[in-house]
Specification:
Largest sheet: 7 strands, mixed
Distance between the termini: 42 Å
Order of helices and strands: EHHEHHEHEHEHEEEHHEEHEEHHEHH
Number of strands: 13
Bound molecules: pyridoxal-5'-phosphate
Number of helices: 14
Radius of gyration: 22 Å
Strand content: 5-15%
Amino acid sequence: MNNRIVYADNAATTRITEPVLQAMMPYLTENYGNASSLYSLGVKSALALDKARKQVSSALNAEPFEIIFTGCGSESDNWLKVFAKTLAKRGKTHLITTCVEHHALLHSMARLEKEGFTVTYLPVNKDGFISVEDFKNAITEKTGLVSIMFANNEIGTIQPIPEIGAICREKGIWFHTDAVQAVGHVPVDVKAMNIDMLSLSAHKFHGPKGVGVFYCRKGIPMDNLIDGGGQERGKRAGTENVAGIVGMGAAIEIAVAHMDEHAKKVTALRNRLIDGLLAAVPKSHLNGSRENRLPGNANISFVGVEGESLLLRLDQAGIMASSGSACASASLDPSHVLMALGMRHEEAHGSVRLTLSEENTEEDVDYIIQTLPGIVASLRAMSPLWESMMNKNQD
Ligand code: PLP
């Protein structure tokens, strides 16, 4: 019996590494002081928060006071709603985003639409890129805020962020990017890329769950999200998750320090995986861009297969991955991202996302390449859809 376990769902979450855990431990045990308390135990926590704020800001090339600690990437995306009043007052009632954003962003936009904003949802091409021309054409006098994700969580496509940032800065439009999948994996520089606001989440780069950041450039007027005490400059009250924030600081510092080395290793593993699977499985294809893609992302469609069944069989074989069909919303609709690429329902339903990290090995990848094609073949043998497709091909 095979005992191999291969974790290939690093876009969903990552493992907390040993140095990150070690950094957090004192703040889960003896250093339990409230960072707002004036005695030394509290001061230790306050200093730990200061250090983490510096670690995060230097990773992004931001200033420490531009960093707001949040409870997750979803919260960070929801922060955009805080700017609605200021935008409306200025008559900036038009927003631009893409149709492949994470639901935290899309649902926030939908709420702003209910409050009277109009939103342009930019389409993407078959590789998942927006067109910069489409973007420029969508801008009106009333455009106040643009939110375009840095890298897509399903297909890994990296958008032309520096170009978009330059256009927004020139036109005086605020530019937010959901960089939850990008930070710690590819270079992100808020100054060089003219990014005004950014969302990130610690658990995507070997930090703990339940902690993130909303970066907001100095000078942009920001309302409060949570009223209460003076934490986070009064913008987001509530006693801080000190251990989580410390873990995030350690994780981002490590991720940035090792980014080149990790990206090189993970890209090679990912290419081995993609090439191996495409060669071994007939009627399979890669979703998303081959080049401008997150290092660890492989999203492949296996025509004639139900993604959910494939996942269950992979799990039985010790391989953890995720599918592009029924998602967290428990809906039977295929993923909005895959549909936006122009895929047919049956192709989108047969998609699997395998996301690697530097903790994966060539043996992990080879095990997936040895295991997955047999599962696809056996599922296809049982599939009426596959049979009818094959019959059609023989006609
Ligand atoms: N944005 C993107 C692109 C994501 O991939 C995710 C999580 O998968 C989120 C936002 C939400 O992050 P969190 O899980 O920390 O709420």
